Amino acid sequence: MIAKWYKGLFFLIVIFSQVSCKTKVHNKELSNDFEKFLTSSYPYVHKINGFYIVASDEKPQSEDSKRDNTGKEVFEHSVRLFSNFLDQDEDGKVDDGMLPVLDGLKSRFLFASGYQEFVYDVIKAVKKRNKKLYVMTMNTDSWPYVADYNGKGWEVDTLDTSLWRPEDCNALWEEVFHTITEAYNRVDPDFSFSDGPLRTYMDDDIREGSYDISEQNRYEKGQYDRVTAVNEYIHQIWAIQFAGEEAKLNEHQQSTLQFMRDKGVPMQLNPGYSGNLGVRLK
Ligand SMILES: [Ca+2]
């Protein structure tokens, strides 16, 4: 299946880091001010050890969304997904192996869900106040939100294009996964998307003609770069292993999966997970 939401499906704003805080007290004041700003500006705010998740109260309304959900449900679902990725053993605490990743999340990212205008506003406002943070988004007016998606129950023949997505998928799963793997990318130089093993596996797959990014690049008028492509490639491979279709992956994709496993990338999600981490601020 070719997803209908390929346009701009991975939206990442690069904000260059320039902040220099001289004392811990100053850091704390900044973080209090930032938190006050978030809670006074957005309908929903959650914090997991300093990593913020914000959301609008707009109802998801993309073409592929089931339209009976609310913005609050998307928000609470995003908190559950982040929590479950960070708490694979489901004991209600961040797994030890995920602590560095959580550090990467809190120091470099913020997650926002809502319509495009809302997330643009968050991006602008966050950039003004904390230049270190990238805003990762779930655009609920253009990407499918499917509350009961469970990541299983479909088959794939081969993974041969960047446009492939699981059937009836929930884009929120993918965007949360991208945020987690972007955090890996920031804390572990081996997890680079521009060079290193992951990039090599994808480049080899493309060179041998078994994987294609050119069609997506045409759709995106030449703007689909290989750094973005690597992050989508690893999500596709993750989704295929999650559905139990791992045997369909070719040798480059198998190597990519093994690399992620060796790095401790969380491989499981439990749709019934209820051990939310962190604290709801609003
Ligand atoms: Ca745990």
Question: Care to give the gist of this entry?
Answer:
This protein has 282 residues and is an alpha/beta fold.
Distance N to C terminus: 38 Å
Q: Helix segment count?
A: 9
Low-confidence stretches: 1-22
Biggest β-sheet: count, sense, barrel?
A: 5 strands, mixed
Give structural attributes:
5-stranded mixed beta sheet; 43% helix; globular
Question: Would you kindly provide a written description of the structure presented here, covering whatever features stand out?
Answer:
With 282 residues, the protein is an alpha/beta fold. The chain has one domain (24-274). The protein is built from nine helices and five strands; from the N terminus they run αββααβαβαααααβ. It has helices at residues 24-41, 71-86, 99-108, 116-129, 171-187, 197-207, 214-219, 226-242, 251-262, and strands spanning 44-48, 51-55, 109-114, 134-139, 279-280. Strands 4-3-2-1-5 form a five-stranded mixed sheet, sandwiched between helices. Helix 4 (116-129) links the parallel strand 3 (109-114) and strand 4. Helix 6 packs antiparallel against helix 9 and helix 8 (226-242) crosses helix 9 (251-262). The longest helix has 18 residues, at 24-41. The structure holds calcium ion.
Give a topology summary:
Blueprint: H1 24-41, E1 44-48, E2 51-55, H2 71-86, H3 99-108, E3 109-114, H4 116-129, E4 134-139, H5 171-187, H6 197-207, H7 214-219, H8 226-242, H9 251-262, E5 279-280
Parallel strand pairs: 2-3, 3-4
Antiparallel strand pairs: 1-2, 1-5
Helix pairs in contact: 2-5, 3-5, 6-9, 8-9
The structure holds calcium ion.
